[in-house]
Amino acid sequence: TSNLITGDRDKYAFVPCNQEKKNLVLSLSEDILVKEIKLANYERFSSTIKDFQVKGSHTLGKWVDLGTYTANPGNGEQTFALKSPTWARYLKFKFLTHHGVEWFCTLSQSNVHGSNMVQGFHEQWESIEEEKSEEEHISENYPTTERRGNVFTTS
C-alpha cells in the first residue's frame, strides 16, 4: 500500500477482485478537515474500483461514515467531494464492487485534500465574519417592522 503515496504511476496496490474483504487504512500526517479524496488507477490490465465506502477516525477506534461513492470505469484520476467535510487522522476505504473482469483490482494513487487545524479555524472565522457582514448589511438597508398589540413600529 505504500505505493499509493509515492506518485509513481508504475507502482500500485493490488488485491484479487474476488477477495471478500478489500480494505485500506491511510494514516494522515495530522488531523485534517477532509473535503475531497482523489483516487487514481493507471494499470491497464486490471479491474478498477467501482463502489467504495470511506470512514474517518481520530484514533483507529471509533469510525465515522464519510459516505459511499461510485468511481467511473477506466483509468486516470477521479475526485470525490465529501458530502459533509469531516475531521479525521485516519481514513478507512472499503472497496465494495469493481469494474471489469480481470483477476486483480488495482489502485495506483490516493490523495486527500482538506485543511489542517489552523486553516480550518481560519476558514470558520472567515465564514462567521461573512455572515456578520451580511446581517449588518441587511439590518442597515432593510428596516424591520414589529407588531405590538395593534401598533406597528419600524426600527
Structure, described:
The chain has 155 residues and is of the alpha+beta class. The protein contains 1 helix and 11 strands; from the N terminus they run βββββββββαββ. Strands 5-4-6-2-9 form a 5-stranded antiparallel β-sheet. It has a two-stranded antiparallel sheet with strand order 1-8. A hairpin with a 2-residue loop joins strand 10 and strand 11 (151-154). The termini are far apart.
Notable traits:
155 residues; alpha+beta; five-stranded antiparallel β-sheet; two-stranded antiparallel ribbon; 11 strands; elongated
User: How many separate helices?
Assistant: 1
Which structural category do the helix and sheet elements fall into?
A: alpha+beta
**Stretches with pLDDT under 50, minimum 5 residues:** none
Task: Give the SSE string.
Answer: EEEEEEEEEHEE
Shape: elongated
- What is the terminal-to-terminal distance? 64 Å
Provide the spatial order of strands within the biggest beta sheet: 5-4-6-2-9
Mean pLDDT: 81
Strand fraction equals over 45%
What is the helix content? 10-25%
* Alpha carbon gyration radius: 23 Å
Describe the main β-sheet briefly: 5 strands, antiparallel
> What is the count of β-strands?
11
